[in-house]
Amino acid sequence: MECRLGCGACCIAPSISSPIPGMPNGKLAGERCAQLSADNHCCIFGSPERPAVCDRFKAEADFCGDSREQALLILNGLEQLTAQ
Predict the structure, then answer these.
(1) Mean of pLDDT values over 3-7
(2) SS3 string of 17-46?
(3) Which ranges of 1-84 does DSSP label H, i.e. alpha helix?
(4) Tens of pLDDT along 23-55?
(5) Residue 74, Cβ density class (10 Å: 0-12 exposed, 13-18 middle, ≥19 buried)
(6) Which PANTHER family does the UniProt entry name for this protein (predicted)?
(7) What are the φ/ψ torsions at residue 62 (nearest 5 degrees)?
(8) Distance in angstroms (rounded) separating the CA atoms of residues 47 and 69
(9) Global pTM?
């Protein structure tokens, strides 16, 4: 599966504890990543500054569903299940 253009759910829903350019302490769940453009594209995709956790995330139907809205619901649910 390829990423859905303009989705950005994986850059919003999960918490990220790794530093991100513009977010030295990472980001909270539900917080929009500082590197997510207005049209929901990662501005540091392919860059060495991109956190490893972001680079390892691969689009899969189980995580992304059939739409951006489903992806947000699924990823938010997973975040709640794994929150400490």
Answers:
(1) 93
(2) CCCECCECCCECCCCCCCCECCCCCECCCC
(3) 52-56, 61-64, 68-82
(4) 999 999 999 999 999 999 999 999 999 999 999
(5) middle
(6) UPF0153 PROTEIN YEIW (PTHR36931:SF1)
(7) -65, -30
(8) 27
(9) 0.89
Q: CA torsion angle for 81, 2, 6, 29 (degrees, to 10)?
A: 20
Lookup result for tokens 């956790």: 53
69: three-class secondary structure by DSSP: helix
Place of tokens 């253009």: 5
Q: Using the CB atoms, write b or e for 15-37: b if 16+ within 10 Å.
A: ebeeebeebeeebebeeebebbe
Residue with tokens 């977010």: 23
Distance between CA 68 and CA 72 in Å, rounded?
Answer: 6
Three-class SS of residue 34? coil
Q: What is the mean pLDDT of residues 1-19?
A: 95
